[in-house]
Amino acid sequence: MPRWSIIFVRIVDRLNYGVGRFAMYLLFVLMAILMWSAISKTFFNPSLWTLEAAQFAMVAYYILGGPYSMQMGSHVRMDLFYARWSDRQRAWTDAFTVLALIFYLGVMLWGAFDSFGYSLGLKWTEPGALGLSWPEIGRLERSPTAWRPYLWPIKLVLCLGFFLMLLQSIAYLIRDIATIRGETI
Questions:
Q1: What letter would DSSP give residue 143?
Q2: Which residue stretches of the chain are H helix?
Q3: For an engineered disulfide with 85, which of 3, 89, 125, 158 has Cβ 3.0 to 4.6 Å away?
Q4: pLDDT tens per residue across all 185 residues of the chain
Q5: For 132, which DSSP code?
Q6: 26: Cβ–Cβ under 8 A, 6 or more apart, which residues?
Q7: 166/122 Cα distance (integer angstroms)
Q8: Environment class of residue 115 by beta-carbon count within 10 Å: exposed (0-12), middle (13-18) or buried (19+)?
């Protein structure tokens, strides 16, 4: 395998390992938010922000932990025939399915960036004299709840999570190609 592909796989693995280990601690943030929600409902006035903050923490935990889960092989796999196949047969199957995953993640990343731009109020101006249009930042999108937080931070997390999952999928494809060629990374 070319040296750049080995370096790419190692960098992506190291990056997703670090982000995944960080994402693990978001579960404690979620538990703290839910504990405060229970305490405030019992002894004080209920907090307006706890439900939505818990949802944001759970989304960040799930999305940022996805590439780490994929890297560790802890995702769900239908194992009816797969377990009996040779490593090369598995690599061929995985290479085919990871191409479908890369396409899917590309579409999801596109949608996430579009939604992120919308949350920033990004609008494109009419083309000017040079035929170029420039982005204008308008009103920032807010949640329609009583707490009304800005939505761009969680949409940025979605973009980051889908991008990291896409990188991990490409790293898996490179590993599968190496296995098919009889090499290891």
A1: -
A2: 3-24, 26-43, 50-72, 87-119, 152-180
A3: 89
A4: 899 999 999 999 999 999 999 999 999 999 999 999 999 988 888 888 998 999 999 999 999 999 999 999 887 777 788 888 898 998 999 999 999 999 999 999 999 998 998 888 876 666 655 555 556 666 788 888 888 999 999 999 999 999 999 999 999 999 999 999 999 88
A5: -
A6: 57, 60, 61, 64, 65
A7: 25
A8: middle
